[in-house]
């Protein structure tokens, strides 16, 4: 699982006993991460005293915020890591800047809770998962204008990768029809491996009555692309069909060809 780690330095209010609702700051250094979701996190402080097991911290960094679990009660100088019990997505995109901590008490007591020591350092660790969206299907798709019984050339363009989900291939499928109106199930024809947003392929396919579709697939697997049937439907309609009309046009072309005439006997050589 990927991790974003903020390095914490330049703490204020060191060597000072702090009660609930006292604030202190530090400088957080880290690289923002976008299109991701936090799954867990922790805070580490290298040098501190805690006077109660009911002490915890809330903090704000950029547009993000978080809450820690309670620290252990330990009045000797020590380092400690606590898990985060709450966090918002803005922590991932905040980047470097000032982080503001507030000392909190989880019971109704009074008195000092925390003393952070001079020279301490810290880390804020955020574990996250990348958000992904499906690839966009091609916006244009066509078969060759002259259809043959044995070969077909197909080209497409306008596909797009998803968020954190680049195109890795295209799935080519076809459907048969006996009447050019009712179409059967989609059957896999071939897979073209490429990361480009456009492409073409030629292959052997009997084109009596076919409809062809192109779907963009991703590294997360073909199932994610197939799940978006609406996108496939758009591609499918753009690809066109070789129907009865195409076959009739070919027959008309053959019928209009000149008919060979028998030789004139009078012009035959003697």
How would you describe the overall organization of this protein?
- Strand 5 and strand 6 form a beta hairpin.
- This protein folds into two domains: 3-130, Sandwich (Jelly Rolls); 140-255, Immunoglobulins (Immunoglobulin-like), CATH 2.60.40.10.
- Residues 221-270 have low confidence and may be disordered.
- The chain is 12% helix and 45% strand.
- The strands form three sheets. Strands 1-2-7-4-5-6-3-9 form an eight-stranded antiparallel beta barrel.
- The chain has 270 residues and is mostly beta strands.
Write the SSE topology:
Elements: E1 3-9, E2 23-29, E3 36-50, E4 55-61, E5 64-68, E6 74-87, H1 90-93, E7 97-105, E8 114-116, E9 122-130, E10 140-143, E11 151-157, E12 167-176, E13 187-193, E14 199-204, E15 210-218, H2 222-226, H3 229-239, E16 241-242, H4 244-255
Antiparallel strand pairs: 1-2, 1-9, 2-7, 3-6, 3-8, 3-9, 4-5, 4-7, 5-6, 10-11, 11-14, 12-13, 12-15, 15-16
CATH class of the largest domain: Mainly Beta
Number of helices: 4
Q: Largest sheet at a glance?
A: 8 strands, antiparallel, barrel
Structural classification: mainly beta
Number of beta strands: 16
**Distance N to C terminus:** 94 Å
Q: What percent strand?
A: 35-45%
The third-level CATH topology of the largest domain is Jelly Rolls
Oligomer: single chain
Name given to the CATH architecture of the largest domain: Sandwich
Number of domains: 2
| Topology order in helix (H) and strand (E) letters | EEEEEEHEEEEEEEEEHHEH
Spatial arrangement of strands, main beta sheet:
1-2-7-4-5-6-3-9
What characteristics describe this protein?
Jelly Rolls, 270 residues, 4 helices, mainly beta, Immunoglobulin-like, 12% helix, 2 domains, 4-stranded antiparallel sheet
